[in-house]
Amino acid sequence: MKRIFSLFLTLILLTAALPALAVGADVRANLPDDIRAFFSTSAFNGYIIDELATEIFENTAGGSFAFVAACKGNQHILYGFELKDGKWVYWLKNAGILLPSDKAYILANCKGQIDNETEQVYQNDSLQIILLSDTGDYYVHSQVFTVNEYGQWHLKSIFSHLLAEKTVTNAWVEKDRILYYQEELAKSTTVWGVTETNLRYFSIAAFPPTVKDARNTLTTPPKISADSDLSPILINFTGGQKFPVYTGPGPQYARAGGGKASVSTNDWIQVFGEENGYILIQYDITADQMRFGYITADALPQNASIPPLNLAHEEARLTRATYLTDDPLNSQSLLLMLPAERQGVKWLGQMGEWVYVEVESDSKTFRGFVPASSITYTTGLNSYSATLDTDFYSATASIQVQSGTQLTAQIIITYPLNYFYDATREPDGYQLYANNVPVLAQTTTQQTALPDGRRQSIFSITAVLPANASLLGLCPIYNSIQKADETIMIYLAK
Fold first, then answer.
1. Which residues fall within 8 angstroms of residue 435, CB to CB, at 6 or more apart?
2. pLDDT tens profile 120-158
């Protein structure tokens, strides 16, 4: 009994003499206390932050930023921090930006340097993410992200021996194109199209490494006419995600693509508005085909502000046999055949030569587009639009009049990038006039922001018009004062 007790006591003493196990990442770099504390929790056990795997940008465009590449095995994750009120605040985690590697990444600022391959100069503060060769005397992989005046970091270049077999990826990235440099040809090849460049959402796996890949995958969002009932917003979704797509707002609607339609967030996505927790989008499938459809609003980036869909939902009639498509602007591929004089068609809105409709077929509900020449109203719905540009904003008004008296209108005011908030320059409401006589109307207002930093004010108006209304006026109100010289005028068809 005494021997057992002595052994137990010895184990206690030995255990007390052992040092406590470290909690958090093994931080070998010189980091601010706030950032070091962030990595000190058990969630970062086993991670290493190498001496050269950090970079801090103080008082740069849009603020002060710090970046850290944390490594665990061959996995690397990029973290970002922003200095706010004297404290470094976490704002970025991107696991898709760094390739797996058994070597540590190096972070650096290459502002003012000339890119050796493209001879382009990095004008702004630029985060360079580097992997060195085994000998350490040249890059095997490099990505550069530059910051703009809004504190947004966007991809500017990629040089890599690792992205494609038997070739080197050497690309300079612009907003609507990628320039691929081929050293052996001593020239560059431009591929037009949009790819995700925002550091927050960028995924290296989604970037086309070669000219061939880019030509097969890149497309440019189509321009939609100003008089369309659908107004697009280009949203930067978080890369590397995939969502099912339905023809209408919810799984109760049919799903195209043989029941397998889905969208990847690695390419451009236009958003048109929200209905019942789903957002209407347009996206590209291939270089030759796009699709309109709905995905859950949960797919939106955090804090994204999307206006509601203002669709008509009015009875309509097909005047001839036609077809339904979810790609009116490109392939116009067949989704459903529709016979003439078909009943139960809902007119939702118009987009140029196409009308957005809802129909039933084989116990399924579809939304899509039919040629405008094949459909007519059965309840007297008319649509109108007008625009107005002032020194401080651009305004677009979309109006629908049902049965000659029921009015719904939306006015979208967009302010320029260099605009600073000034209440004296911004309408806070509108007064509706019919034949120069004031009309009682209900107005709601919403503020939203575009991905490029511009701000919008959206005014939604409902009213009952007098039966003889032929001229509408939408007069802006500034602090209870109407400004007649900025009135939007619209003549109603008779």
1. 466, 468, 469, 470, 471
2. 788 889 999 999 988 878 889 999 999 988 888 999 999
- Token pair, residue 41, equals 């929790």
Per residue in 62-91, is it b (16+ CB within 10 Å) or e — as a string?
eeebbbbbbbeeeebbbbbbbbeeeebeee
CA 97 vs CA 53, 77, 134, 206, 294: distances in Å? 14, 8, 21, 10, 28
**Residue 208: closest CA among 233, 177, 245:** 177
Which of 143, 53, 31 is CA-nearest to residue 105?
53
Q: What angle do CA 32, 37, 39 make, to 5 degrees?
A: 105
Residue that the structure tokens 């109760």 belong to: 252
Beta pairing partners, 323: 337
Mind listing the pLDDT tens digit for each residue in 270-292? 999 999 999 999 998 887 889 99
Tell how many helices (H) and how many strands (E) occur in the chain.
4, 36
The region, left, alpha or beta by phi > 0 then psi within -120 to 50, assigned to residue 379 is alpha
Cβ(234)–Cβ(217) under 8 Å?
no
Contact between residue 171 and residue 178 where contact means Cβ atoms under 8 Å apart:
yes
- Matching residue, tokens 């001879």: 119
| DSSP summary character for residue 304 | -
Closest CA to 274 of 221, 239, 332, 235: 235
| One-letter amino acid of 298 | D
What is the pTM assigned to this prediction? 0.57
